[in-house]
Structures are given as structure tokens and as C-alpha cells.
Design brief:
Layout: H1 29-36, H2 51-64, E1 68-72, H3 75-86, E2 92-96, H4 102-112, E3 116-120, E4 136-142, H5 154-161, E5 167-171, E6 189-193, E7 207-211, H6 213-226, H7 232-243, H8 245-264, E8 269-273, H9 283-289, E9 297-302, H10 306-314, E10 320-321, E11 331-333, H11 345-349, E12 357-361, H12 367-379
Parallel strand pairs: 2-3, 2-4, 4-5, 5-6, 10-11
Antiparallel strand pairs: 1-7, 6-7, 8-9, 9-12, 11-12
The chain binds pyridoxal-5'-phosphate (PLP).
């Protein structure tokens, strides 16, 4: 056989090559058979698998302490793959109100397919047994949650889920594997919007699902059927992002903590939601299940009205007004007007988000730059009634 054109003398490229091929020439019927039987990792068609993407899957699996990981086209693609892989008509699914807004849309589709859904509050997690039914097949949660960074005790939830053999799925996008490894806490499956901190540079969309090899095989079946396989170029960008992931995650978290502490002392901020603050209701559980800090995202209420929050954002100079999170740049948005916009009004406020709640994703800038920017903007804000002490944040 002729030498591999990439490594004719054995010198390997320092980065995983981007393989854009849709299809691959079969070297033999035997090898084709072994690949299609899943005995060896090989490549036949992009919708099945791609070598660039596969290399990144292995890296994310290692980061999450998983046997394997499967990548797909977005975080929401990962969520729908999980739902469609494990749920059938007649099954019961428990969802938390405190979850990325697009799940609301997905829930409408799932209900149309005959899946019974119960929405509960994070404050109800300790009594989840009251909501579990004999046909509960899955509990899906985010911790910290989007956007109020509420914390759910993963170990406790798993103890209840296993009573009926339900799968516990944890979206680890806000925490990232740098701060939390849900599989080690009992979760069955971990989901990521890899668009966020794993990628980290606002330049790719991807979803990741990590778990056992058995779950990988099941999810692979769904991805192959649906065609949600990640493209090689995005896979390569994601691999590049992972190289700096640890130091970015550390800096994002220390910036978020510094900003949360600063805001919690500020008279124009009435509530701060960040599990790293001792005043936060999730702090004690977060200390038990998170490590190296509490993640790069926080939320806070500015002044008294949405106009106050808008004015605050409009005056920022270094922090960008944009959705998404986990990137090198710090980003702010008003969830009420963005990620939750398409929900019915009553659902937007049911879990504690207010019209003047701002979500901030800390980037990797110098901490002083961010605090000074926030300070100069808050200095310009004229609010009628200034609060005297920070309101403890009670979970809805
Ligand atoms: C916690 C969380 N999960 C899932 C998603 C969906 O990810 P994507 O935008 O990559 O589809 C998001 C998006 O913001 C998110 O914040």
C-alpha cells in the first residue's frame, strides 16, 4: 500500500487535519463490514462519522470523564437527539422551568408526539418524588441554570431518578467540565452547547453529548438517521478552542466572581444571581458539586425598570450587547427580550426572571477593565429608589 500522503515519513501534523470528504473509498469489503458493524472506528460517509470530528469527540469525552462523546450541529440539536433517542409516546419527562428557552419550543413538539411533560421549579427539586410517575423516563436539568444560575443537587436528583429507572440528563453548558463533572455525580448523560465555552470564540455552533459507550451507540443511531453530524471545519475550530479551554474557564470564573461581588455591594443593583456568592441560595450545594469556581455567567437586576437595564447596557463600552455566552469577550443581554422572548408572558416570569434582569457572561479580559466599565455605566444611571441592602435571591 502507498504511504499516507499526510505522513509519508512519519512526521505527524500538529493539528488534526480538516477532512472535508463526504464519502470515502472502501479499501476492502472486510473493512467496510467492520466499520458498518461498529467493530472499528472507520469512515464511509460524513453523516455517519468524520475523523476530524471524532478526534474532538474523544477529547470532550476525556474532559467529562465519559467513555465517549458525540458531536452534532448545535446545543439544541444535542437536546433533541437526547429526547428522540430515549423518549417514546406515553413516556413522562420532567423539565425545569429554569432551562434554556428553546426547550419550551421543543416541549411543544414532544407533546405533539405523545410525550407527557411536567414542568417544575428548582425549589421543587428536593421533593421531586412528588412529580415522578411510574412512566417517568427522563429528568432533564441545567445546573447552574440559564439565566438565573440556580443550582440543583445532581446526586440527590439521581437518587430519586433511579427509583423508577429514569435517565438523569444534565446540561453542563453553564458549569463547563472545568467546574463540574455531572457523570461523576451520578448523571447518566451530559449535554453541552459547545457553541459556548468549549468553542469559546463566537465562531462555531456545535452540540456535545457525553456518556457511556452504550449511550454513544444509541445516540449515534439517532444522529445518523437525522443527519445532525457536525461539519469538519467546525470540529477543527472546536478542537482549537479546547486547547485554551482550561485557562479561559478559570479566567471567566474569576472575572464573574469579581463582578458578582462588586455588584452585590452596589446600591443600584437589587439582586445578584451567582452561586459563588454566600448570599446565593445555591451556594452550599454548588460548593459540594462544583470545583475551581462557579462558572463565568451571572445575572443581576439593574435599577427598577427595564429602561434602567437598557440604559445600563447602552452605556457599556467594553462589554458587548449580544446573546450567547462563554466566549473570550464579555457579553450582556436582557433575557426577557432575547432568550425568553418567544415564550408566553406568564412563562417568562414564572421562574424569577424580571424585565430588568441582565445576564452577563464574563470573558477573559482584565478584571479591572470589566469592573470599571460596569461602574462608569452604573454611575450614569439615575434611578428613583435606591436599595439599601442586597435582596437575598429566593428560588422560585
Ligand atoms: C444552557 C444552554 N443549553 C443549550 C443551548 C442551545 O445551544 P445552541 O445555541 O448551540 O443550540 C444554550 C444556548 O444558549 C444554552 O445556554
Amino acid at each position: 500500500m502507498s504511504a499516507d500522503p499526510l505522513t509519508p515519513y512519519g512526521n505527524k501534523p500538529m493539528v488534526t487535519p480538516i477532512v472535508n470528504a463526504v464519502n470515502y473509498q472502501y479499501c476492502s469489503f472486510d473493512v467496510l463490514r467492520q466499520i458498518t458493524d461498529g467493530q472499528i472506528d472507520g469512515y464511509t460517509y460524513h453523516r455517519d462519522d468524520n475523523p476530524t470530528v471524532r478526534a474532538v469527540e474523544k477529547k470532550i469525552a476525556a474532559m467529562e470523564g465519559a467513555e465517549d462523546c458525540i458531536l452534532c450541529t448545535s446545543g439544541m440539536a444535542a437536546c433533541i437527539m437526547v429526547y428522540l433517542t430515549y423518549l417514546s409516546a406515553g413516556d413522562h419527562l420532567i423539565l425545569f422551568h429554569d432551562i434554556y428557552g428553546a426547550h419550551y419550543k421543543l416541549s411543544l413538539i414532544l407533546e405533539r408526539l405523545g410525550i407527557d411533560i411536567t414542568w417544575i421549579h428548582v425549589s421543587q427539586a428536593p421533593v421531586i418524588q412528588n412529580f415522578i410517575k411510574p412512566n417517568t423516563r427522563m429528568i432533564f436539568c441545567e445546573t447552574p441554570s440559564n439565566p438565573l444560575c440556580k443550582i440543583i443537587d445532581i446526586r440527590a436528583l439521581k437518587n430519586e431518578a433511579k427509583m423508577v429507572g429514569a435517565l438523569l440528563v444534565v446540561d453542563n453548558t453553564f458549569a463547563t467540565p472545568y467546574h463540574q463533572k455531572p457523570l461523576s455525580l451520578g448523571a447518566d448523560i451530559v449535554v453541552h452547547s459547545a457553541t459556548k465555552a468549549l468553542g469559546g470564540h463566537n465562531d462555531l455552533m456545535a452540540g456535545a453529548i457525553a456518556g457511556s459507550r452504550t449511550e454513544y451507540d444509541r445516540l449515534w443511531f439517532t444522529r445518523q438517521a437525522m443527519g445532525t453530524t457536525l461539519d469538519a471545519y467546525s470540529g477543527s475550530l472546536l478542537e482549537r478552542g479546547l486547547k485554551t479551554f482550561d485557562i479561559r474557564a478559570e479566567k471567566m470564573a474569576s472575572n464573574a466572581m469579581a463582578i458578582a461581588e462588586y455588584l452585590s455591594q452596589h446600591s443600584k443593583i437589587s439582586r445578584v444571581y451567582y452561586p459563588g456568592l454566600m448570599i446565593d441560595q445555591g451556594n452550599s450545594v454548588a460548593l459540594r458539586q462544583m470545583e475551581n469556581g462557579f462558572g463565568g455567567v451571572l445575572a443581576f437586576d439593574v435599577g427598577n425598570t427595564q429602561e434602567d437595564a437598557k440604559k445600563f447596557i447602552s452605556e457599556l463600552k467594553s462589554i458587548f450587547h449580544a446573546v450567547s455566552l462563554g466566549s473570550t469577550e464579555s457579553l450582556v443581554c436582557i433575557p426577557y427580550l432575547t432568550t425568553l422572548l418567544y415564550m408566553p408572558e406568564e412563562r417568562r416570569i414564572v421562574f424569577g426572571v424580571r424585565e430588568n434582569t441582565v445576564r452577563l457572561s464574563a470573558g477573559i479580559e482584565k478584571t479591572d477593565l470589566l469592573i470599571n466599565d460596569i461602574e462608569q455605566s452604573l454611575n450614569k444611571l439615575m434611578i428613583t429608589e435606591e436599595k439599601k441592602t442586597l435582596q437575598p435571591f429566593e428560588y422560585a
